Hints:
Blueprint: E1 15-22, E2 30-34, E3 37-38, E4 52-55, E5 58-66, E6 72-80, E7 85-91, E8 100-106, E9 115-121, E10 130-134, E11 142-144, E12 149-154, E13 161-166, E14 178-180, E15 189-191, E16 197-204, E17 210-216
Parallel strand pairs: 1-7, 9-16, 14-15
Antiparallel strand pairs: 1-4, 2-3, 2-5, 5-6, 7-8, 9-12, 10-11, 10-13, 13-14, 16-17
Amino acid sequence: MIFSCIKNDNFIKGDAKIRYFQSAVTDTTQNFFLKGVQSGASTVYGSNSNYLVVAGDSSYTITSRNINTGVDVASTTQKFDIGANYSIYYTRKTTTSPPELTVFQDNVKQSLDSVKLTFLNLGYTLGSKVIIQDDGKAFDTFNMQYGDRVSHTIKLSKATRISFALVTPVSTQPPVNALDSLPTTTSKSIAISKGLVYTVLLDGTKKGELQMRLVSSN
């Protein structure tokens, strides 16, 4: 159920779209609320909701609660513009800091001959920065620390293979999925397609091991 403020004598100018992510590995399932009314279904760690429609050109108080409780554990205020898409992330800055809600506007405009990738590092359990590189050299290798958000629109080639690693690896680190331009037979490769828009969410396990999630935005 979505509750929203309607302005201009009950005339809705237009809609915005929002979705929720539970990105805190040390936390339980979250329920999200807009102005005190639950918005969307309960969201477990490592998952996200679909986009939900709300009234645009409106400001909202967004809160999160641990499942089956009535106490807000994180809160923020955000104005949603008409026609815009937003992602709301439940996260922490460190394992001991309080949870918080971080909101980003999503650029979901498609480029039919390219793929759009937005890399976001919310790995608060990671002990070092993350290295991102592409064998196809569509972009220069770069590092990301917690909270960094970087977007690249690239042309796919047969050499495209985007990999992820910690600057300072942990001894228990398992192989991390790579983003590949072509379907492969390896279980650690995920094919990406031109014309699509993706969020690449970098995360950490409770042991500080690097993880990666690929989420399509269209």
